[in-house]
Each structure stands twice: as structure tokens, then as C-alpha cells.
Amino acid sequence: xxxxxxxxxxxxxxxxxxxxxxxxxxxxxxxxxxxxxxxxxxxxxxxxxxxxxxxxxxxxxxxxxxxxxxxxxxxxxxxxxxxxxxxxxxxxxxxxxxxxxxxxxxxxxxxxxxxxxxxxxxxxxxxxxxxxxxxxxxxxxxxxxxxxxxxxxxxxxxxxxxxxxxxxxxxxxxxxxxxxxxxxxxxxxxxxxxxxxxxxxxxxxxxxxxxxxxxxxxxxxxxxxxxxxxxxxxxxxxxxxxxxxxxxxxxx
Length: 252
Ligand code: NAP
Fold this sequence. Notes:
Distance between the termini: 19 Å
Strand content: 5-15%
Number of helices: 7
Oligomer: single chain
Shape: globular
CATH topology: Rossmann fold
CATH superfamily: NAD(P)-binding Rossmann-like Domain
Bound molecules: NADP nicotinamide-adenine-dinucleotide phosphate
Largest sheet: 7 strands, parallel
Strand order of the largest sheet: 3-2-1-4-5-6-7
Order of helices and strands: EHEHEHEHEHEHHE
Radius of gyration: 17 Å
Number of strands: 7
């Protein structure tokens, strides 16, 4: 698989057979599509989000399609404190005894505004949900990821997390942080674990967040989340074994 572009990957149907993968922000948009796609390729998916009602809908879609029974983890990443994270880690340990994949996907856009006028509360909330919560979740789940024979941690980046862009405020800064966190963790796990850590930028994709960021854009100007899944499947599955510390794009 050397030299493959993740976005050109063609997964086999049973790619994620018997893998346990947790997806944050699985209730909508790209996270929902990733949860459905991982399940369709054989994974048992832990659906994490803040709305039980929306997660139940995704859960039912997966079951109706005949894929492995998913689990639901209701956790509001803006509000959750230590014990809620530890309960989740215990649930994973007690149910499966390991974790094979962790997709950090949940994020808030916050506000599009100049730094000079950026609301401080919004700044803190965006940095917390997009970056600090991913750090805490990774920390509590690392013992279970270490128990996998082939684990993948995938962070969700953005074009504005690689090159700063006016008015993208806390969102852009949080994504720079995500890229940094992934690099640091990749170095720390490279030689002494079977865990790989990478970043993936979906590129403009037809979701509620995209509509909020670009209200004037035609709805069909961007691909559906389901169309960008090849890169997610590549980086989550065994064919990316040995690939770590990278930052990839779903779209050309
Ligand atoms: P989206 O449609 O707004 O979905 C965001 C997901 O995150 C939803 O499931 C949402 O839950 C969840 N979430 C938000 N706040 C949360 C919280 N406090 N606790 C738990 N879950 C929370 O966004 P998207 O476009 O699919 O974005 C997915 C990822 O791709 C994000 O990391 C985003 O930065 C990145 N990205 C997207 C684009 C794009 O064009 N769409 C481009 C570059 C990067 P609810 O359903 O409850 O709201």
C-alpha cells in the first residue's frame, strides 16, 4: 500500500471486521457518515455525541442495515468533567477490553470574526470542544488503545488549521492545535506501541457546519460526507499500518 493517496483508497467490504471504533460527533455530518461507513465495513462503532435522540437515530440506521450492533455514549464535550470521561473508558474496557480506533471528529465552528472582536467565552468553548476534549478523551482511552494489536487515532483537521486565514478565529487556532497534538502523540507512540496517529482534513463538505460557514454557497457545491469516506477507511483500517504522524486530505 506504499505511496497510496488515502482519498483514492478502495476498501474491501470486511476491512474493519471485529474492530471497535469510537467516533465523536457521530450524530450528524461527517461523523455520522464515518460511523455508518465503519459499521458497513464490519466495525462495532461507539457513537459519541451530546444528543441521545440523534445518536439513537444513527444507531437504528446501522441496525436496520444489518451491521454490527453499535453502542451509544452520550457525552457533551463542552460540559463533561473527569468522571464522565473515566466512566466512558471503563465502559470500553468492561465491554470490549480494548479499542482499535478513535476518530476525533466533533467540533464547533464558533464565530467568524476578527481576533480583535472575538468573544472570549466562545473562544474558550471552541478551544475546549475542538482541542482540549480530544486531548482528555485520548488520554483516558490510551490504555485501551494500547491493548489493541493495531490501533489508529485519527484527528480531524482543516485547511485553516494549516495556514491561518482571517476571521476564522478560535476554530482555526483549535485546528492548528489538533495538528500539533497529533504530531506530539505520534512521536510519543511511534517506537513503543502499535498505535498510529494521523490528521485528516475533510475539505469543504456538505454539512451543517459548512452551511453555517458559507451561507451563500449552493448546497450542492460540495460533496456529501459519504463521498469522502475512502480516506477515513484507509487511515482507520489495517492497510495504513505503519503510517503515523501524517496529515492528509480527503479531497484533491
Ligand atoms: P457538523 O455537521 O456541525 O457536525 C459536528 C458534530 O460534532 C455533530 O455530531 C455535533 O453534535 C458534534 N458536536 C458538536 N459539539 C459537541 C459537543 N459539545 N459534544 C459532543 N459532540 C458535539 O460538522 P461537520 O462538518 O460534520 O464537521 C466534522 C468535522 O470535520 C469537524 O471536526 C470539522 O471541524 C471538520 N471539517 C469540516 C469541514 C466541512 O466542510 N464540513 C471542513 C473542514 C473540516 P450535534 O449533532 O449534537 O450538533
